[in-house]
Amino acid sequence: MRVVKVATCSLNQWAMDFDCNMKNIKESICRAKAAGAAIRLGPELEITAYGCEDHFLEPDTITHAWECLKELLVGDWTEGILCSFGMPVMRGAERYNCQVLCLNRKIVMIRPKMWLANGGSCGELRWFTAWKQKEPLLDEFLLPTHVSEALSQTTVPFGYGYIQFLDTAVAAEVCKELFCAVPIHPELALNGVEVFMNASGSNHQVRKMDRRLRAITGATHACGGVYMYSNHLGCDGGRVYYDGCSCIVVNGDVVAHGLQFSLKDVDLVVAQIDLDKVASSRYSNSSFREQASCKTKVPSVFVPYKLCQSFKLHTSVSAPIKIHCPCPEEEIAMGTACWLWNHLRRSGASGFLLPLFGVVDSSSVAAIVGCMSQLVVKEIANGDEQVKADAIRIGNYIDGQVPTDSKEFAKRIFYTVFMGSGTGFSCYSSADSRRRSRVLSEEVGSWHLDVSIDGVISSLLYLFQTLTGKRLHNKENGGTNVENTALQNIQARTRMVIAFMLASLLPWVHNKPGFYLVLSSTTADEGLCGNLTKYGCSSGDLNPVGSINKQDLRAFLRWAAENLGYSSLAEIEAAHPNATLESSRTNDQEESDIGMTDEELSVCGKLRRIFRQGPLSMFKDLCCKWQLTSTPAEIADKVKHFFMYYASNRHKMTVLTPSYLVESYSPEDNRYDQRQFLYNARWPYQFRKIDELVQQLNTDGEALPTSTE
């Protein structure tokens, strides 16, 4: 038997906080050594954190990364253990995303990433160059002077290759290299590599865990091997949550798997592997042997060192385990709650403030904060000292008190405010929405306020009348659309001002330190079609649901009512089924003003954002999807309505509140949906093509069935 113990970890790093990152790295190494591991793998760019973005363009970032690596090598952190550290490296004029493989206080080789992640939340091509050279053999990289002097090592191999030890071979495959069209691990396997180390920076998205796990297990299913996967855990300062799931796979079977949703800073998983099982799998595979006989030779670095343990009588190896993949509703709850906690504990804030109206979007945010409070109390009960220290500081506990009840903790860190208006304005707040807000706040445990904003609105309207001599009327009182919209916007912007005022002053009123972060609750659908008020209630410090469509939020509410213990969410979800709003709506009504249901908006939004469809492509797609309920002419009208509102309101996307990216579907202009914000909202050419196609379908007798509605 060739038995080797390996360790991989998920780390909760913070972009540009090198002290925080080094603390987590060192703790992971200590725990790996204590477990007897011969290999320790950390996540991609762990020294700087993955989310540094344009900080990678700064020379200081590279300098500090080398300083941190030197600290790890000068100490005994790599003594007797192969460590793979992620950091940016400059080579001439090029900047590379690298894994630096170290052993016994020396750098064995530097492996630059070959295929970069670009698109969605990743923009590596903006900061890094992809390593494209497979030949000639590994280049020699000249180390920075201060590192060279400290290590008594001048150069190190740099490039694509693997490390050949006396008893096995080890190689790196960095993040995207596994998930691209032509991964590199098969070629490495044919060259004899048995242990693959994948350092990743993979952010959470709903339903992504299963896809990712299939790729990892598939990597060694056909060609055998030990696949170590490491990922970040938590939020490193941006809009994404890294969902851990570090794991170890042997010949296609998962033998160790880490946490997906956790408040921990370090999550280590360890497995003991018999490498002879890898060899046996390959020896018995005739096609593998034949391909290995004519392989392309990959360069290697020889290290005269043994990683495997000597055989002992009671040696055991890790057995396959089953992995639970959570449902999408649980992912929304847990991922968003962890994301919020990371922002809260690192921002210096003392809590959150949420304008709560007893409707789907704001109630979802309240439930997520409640879920966060439950997670905090649970982690404290499980003995997590870091979470305990953060909760004591944020909750302003004294005299040895600690949070033991989620509602009591929520009361200390969460304000909810119902800001109602009377029937004299364009929108009014119903008694039901007021009641539902109060009941939900009691279930979650928030400090709840019920505020009438009529006086503030009346003062603004009086000021306008004094300045212009004009008095505004809503539609019910004979007002125009312009007046009606103005009245709605005045209310929304008044609520925004009041929310930020309360967030900054309520802690002072209650003799608490710090400030509160204002939470927004605008959904992806509302953002995409602009069904929101610019600088109104859509404004905040953070938006937990900004990339989630309302259909998914409704499903989340049904799940949360049962699984989080907030039973009032079921009533909130059922209060207003899909029905198109009239313009004279109340605040507790949920659907869009543009003549489309939540479901229709969700479908159009995904086709626009994820599948990148323009008006004509969307029309054709929807003709197939909706052919049993709508005619081509009806579908054309909906597509035109959607794109007219999308274009007219595109400017609003430039100021959206930073939101948690839980889907690949986010309308944020400055991050994920980079299109212009000034459009010809009539789309004359595209709409004309749709009309021509509708006419052709009708003329050719291919008209789809007429709607029965």
What can you see in these coordinates?
The protein is α/β, with parallel strands linked by helices. 41% of the residues lie in helices and 16% in strands. The chain has 23 helices and 22 strands. The strands form four sheets. Strands 1, 2, 3, 4, 5, 10, 11, 12, 13, 14, 15, 16, 17 and 18 form a 14-stranded mixed β-sheet that branches. A four-stranded parallel β-sheet has the order 21-20-19-22, sandwiched between helices. A two-stranded antiparallel ribbon has the order 6-7. Strand 1 (3-11), helix 1 (18-34) and strand 2 (39-41) form a beta-alpha-beta unit. Helix 10 packs across helix 11 (360-381), helix 18 runs antiparallel to helix 19 and helix 21 (615-625) crosses helix 22 (632-648). The longest helix is centred in the last third of the chain and has 29 residues, at 481-509. It is globular. Residues 577-591 and 705-709 have low confidence and may be disordered.
Secondary structure layout plus pairing:
Blueprint: E1 3-11, H1 18-34, E2 39-41, H2 59-74, E3 82-91, E4 94-103, E5 106-112, E6 118-119, E7 122-123, H3 124-127, E8 139-142, H4 145-151, E9 155-158, E10 162-164, E11 169-172, H5 176-179, H6 185-190, E12 195-199, H7 208-221, E13 226-234, E14 242-243, E15 247-250, E16 253-257, E17 266-274, H8 275-283, H9 286-293, E18 300-302, H10 328-347, E19 351-355, H11 360-381, H12 385-395, H13 406-413, E20 414-420, H14 431-444, E21 447-452, H15 454-468, H16 481-509, E22 516-518, H17 524-529, H18 550-563, H19 568-575, H20 598-609, H21 615-625, H22 632-648, H23 684-699
Parallel strand pairs: 1-2, 1-13, 2-3, 10-18, 11-12, 12-13, 19-20, 19-22, 20-21
Antiparallel strand pairs: 1-17, 3-4, 4-5, 6-7, 8-9, 10-11, 13-14, 13-15, 15-16
Helix pairs in contact: 2-4, 10-11, 10-18, 11-12, 11-13, 11-14, 11-18, 14-19, 18-19, 21-22, 22-23
